[in-house]
Amino acid sequence: MLCVRRITLREIRLPLKEPFRISSGVSTERRICLLELESADGGGLTGWSECVAGEQPNYSDETIDTAWFAIRAWVAPRILGRELEAPGEVHGILARDFRGHRMAKAAVEMGCWELAARLRDCPLSVLLGGTRERIVTGISLGIQDSPEGLVRRARVALEQGYRKIKVKIAPGRDVAYVRAVRDALGPDVQLAVDANSAYTLDDGDLLRQLDAFGLLMLEQPLGPDDLVRHARLQRLLETPLCLDESITDVERAEDMIALGSGRIVNIKPGRVGGFTPSIAIHDLCRRHGIPVWCGGMLESGVGRAHNVALASLPNFTLPGDLSPSARYWERDIVSPEWTMDHEGLVRVPLEAAGMGVDVDRDRVEDLTVRREVLQ
Ligand code: OSB
Ligand code: MG
User: Fold this and answer.
1) The model's pTM
2) Is the CB of 273 under 6 A from ligand 1?
């Protein structure tokens, strides 16, 4: 049994240690929407989650402001006070006659899973069906001003233990940058690139040059809705395509497989509407021999906890974008902070119930610029 009696929305501001640039925009400070969900059973337990929507609609059409509005107006009212058998019901309740707003829905859905795990005194990863105790981790490097600058970052990341180096690319900052990194790191390092939809099919010849670098994958070269065009591009390339923005639900993953639009899926639970659709995509891909990995959205320690729990499922066989707290923040909002060892492994917390880290409430209060209580 699960019943949420109150949801507190908070917006905190967390400055990134350094700006993070992708093809469609740059983040210097994160405006993060945190949710605290309170159980109606009187035990005083609360679950936490994070909405991954950005400040600008450059990655997806949602933003923190649209998500805040959607949670207040349509998502929370469907869940508050409702008696649920299990958190797996939430996704269906939020899907019926309610299009889009997946990041808003995911924030509430994932908070319900976290709360359910605490109520059952069970680690979130176990409740989700996770089987791994450690997650192999890669780093996503933002666009740099020069190939030399990018090579420097990549070398440091390898020394820190990262097991996959993902490089953001954009027109004009692609082949030369990737060549420089491959030449510097040697042929054995797992190297991937992510275009965040910066190209079109007219760039086929250019993208074909990337085949020379033995990349693990080329992530999301074309637009989010371009499943057919991605299939055409995949036929031109040896490098496996991985879809991120395009995979918004399990049906889109089915389409990718049916059309041959890609060979790998990046699962971000916030992008697909929560854990239930994430698990469905994971299971579908597993049946089809498609490897998946867990992407990141520059989350605080709360969203990171949710990603780590999901990445413990068995078909997450490629390194996730799950960098430790210190990569992003002077100080995170959870304790313990997220760390990675020198083999590039992040431990899945299995000792505590729920997401396995504690939210530093005093710090969250200090950082809060907006709050709203829904009940
Ligand atoms: O495409 O994976 C992406 C960050 C913001 C928006 C989109 C993406 C990213 C990242 C960051 O790659 C990965 C991380 O959280 O470290
Ligand atoms: Mg991506």
Assistant:
1) 0.97
2) no
Q: Which fold has domain 127-347?
A: TIM Barrel (3.20.20)
User: 105, 164, 166, 268: which one is catalytic?
Assistant: 268
Q: Can you give the pLDDT at residue 335? A: 97
Q: Which helix (H) or strand (E) holds 326?
A: helix 325-328
Task: Looking at the structure, give the CATH architecture of the domain made up of residues 4-121+359-374.
Answer: 2-Layer Sandwich (3.30)
**pLDDT, tens digit, for every residue of 85-113?**
999 999 999 999 999 999 999 999 999 99
Nearest CA to ligand 1 atom 12: 140
Four-residue CA torsion sign, 57, 62, 63, 66: positive
Q: What is the 295 CA–ligand 1 centroid distance (Å)?
A: 7
Domain boundaries, the chain: 4-121+359-374, 127-347
Measured from the CB, is residue 109 less than 6 Å from ligand 1? no
How many whole angstroms separate alpha carbon 230 and alpha carbon 235? 9
- Evaluate: CB of 297 within 6 angstroms of ligand 1: yes
Amino acid at 50: E
Alpha carbons 289 and 282: distance in angstroms, whole number: 10
